[in-house]
TrEMBL record:
The keyword Methyltransferase applies. SUPFAM superfamilies: S-adenosyl-L-methionine-dependent methyltransferases. Belongs to the N(4)/N(6)-methyltransferase family. PANTHER family: DNA ADENINE METHYLASE, SITE-SPECIFIC DNA-METHYLTRANSFERASE (ADENINE-SPECIFIC). GO terms for biological process: methylation. It comes from Coraliomargarita algicola. Keywords: Methyltransferase, S-adenosyl-L-methionine, Transferase. This is site-specific DNA-methyltransferase (adenine-specific).
Length: 286
């Protein structure tokens, strides 16, 4: 089981490829690098690389304004977030208030947006905003609203993020814009790109890429000289886009459904990965 450092539950979260990515960083003599995730989501992998000193600093970028609001609050105001968690009961009534703030955000402060998103992420089925409340509105299900809301554990995770905050940068750019910033070769910088899935993206996240966006991203990363790694669902459209690059297929086992997902890793030209591949032999639990 992978160690989860993120306070968010994230469909498709890539914490599970930590062993592979950490080996890759070591194999390429990049220990202590600046690690950048243009599509960071739950950022579980980034946090673990930081905590275990594979990265000296990390960039958590996500275009989704709610995801961004959450990370800003978590990194810049961890104490205020922790107080809110301590004081706020985990009830259907609070769930409804949070839902309403997300549905009708006019007049809501960034902090209110952040905590509403966080609360729904922890109390909705699979952590998806459209997923519906765990246990149902009448709480008649087997699991109840607080099944994934262990206050003490969540507070510990947020406290730790607070302790590392000077080494975490948060931004809300389009992923491609962020990539553009790292066009020039930087020996100490590593980009891991995990864009919305080609096939399932639109059901899981607020922002989804269309064919033209996936194509545009491939054109941008193809010109990058800074080393990068990209992950996707294994689809012929994506394979064709990156035909000039080395790729390796691997399997992810979704812990909620036990379904095996076919994914692919795509490597920039300057990266060596032979030693790290051993970490991808078994299906990785997501
Ligand atoms: C596959 S998820 C990333 C999951 C992440 N690697 C993790 O481990 O949790 C894709 C993320 O891209 C974000 N996203 C979608 N479109 C984007 C864009 N144009 N620019 C930046 N982020 C975007 C979504 O909000 C979502 O969080």
């Amino acid at each position: 089981m992978s160690i989860a450092h993120s306070p968010l539950r994230y469909p498709g979260g890539k914490n599970c490829i930590f062993s592979f990515v950490s080996c890759l960083i070591a194999e390429n003599d990049m220990l202590g690098c600046k690690y950048i995730e243009p599509y960071a989501g739950g950022a579980g992998l980034a946090l673990r690389l930081l905590y275990e000193e594979f990265a000296e600093s990390i960039v958590i970028n996500d275009l989704d304004p709610l995801v961004h609001a959450f990370w800003c609050t978590c990194v810049n105001e961890p104490g205020k977030l922790i107080e809110w968690i301590k004081e706020t009961p985990v009830t259907v009534s609070i769930w409804k208030q949070c839902k309403e703030i997300i549905r009708n955000p006019e007049g809501a402060s960034p902090f209110e947006m952040a905590v509403s998103f966080f609360f729904l992420n922890r109390t909705n089925v699979s952590g998806v905003l459209s997923g519906g409340i765990i246990g149902g509105v009448n709480q008649t299900g087997k699991y109840k609203i607080d099944a994934r809301y262990n206050k003490a554990a969540l507070i510990q995770k947020i406290e730790k993020i607070g302790r590392f905050s000077s080494r975490i940068e948060v931004s809300k750019l389009d992923g491609i814009k962020l990539v553009e910033k790292y066009k020039k070769y930087r020996a100490d910088t590593f980009l891991y790109l995990d864009p919305p899935y080609y096939e399932k993206g639109s059901n899981l996240y607020l922002n989804a890429y269309k064919d033209a966006d996936h194509t545009r991203l491939s054109e941008y990363v193809s010109t990058l000289s800074t080393p990068w790694l990209l992950s996707y669902d294994n689809h012929s459209f994506i394979i064709d886009l990156y035909n000039a690059f080395e790729k390796r297929a691997y399997k992810l086992q979704h812990s909620t459904s036990n379904k095996i997902g076919d994914e692919v890793l795509i490597f920039s030209r300057k990266i060596s990965f032979d030693k790290s591949l051993a970490m991808l032999r078994e299906p990785l639990i997501i």
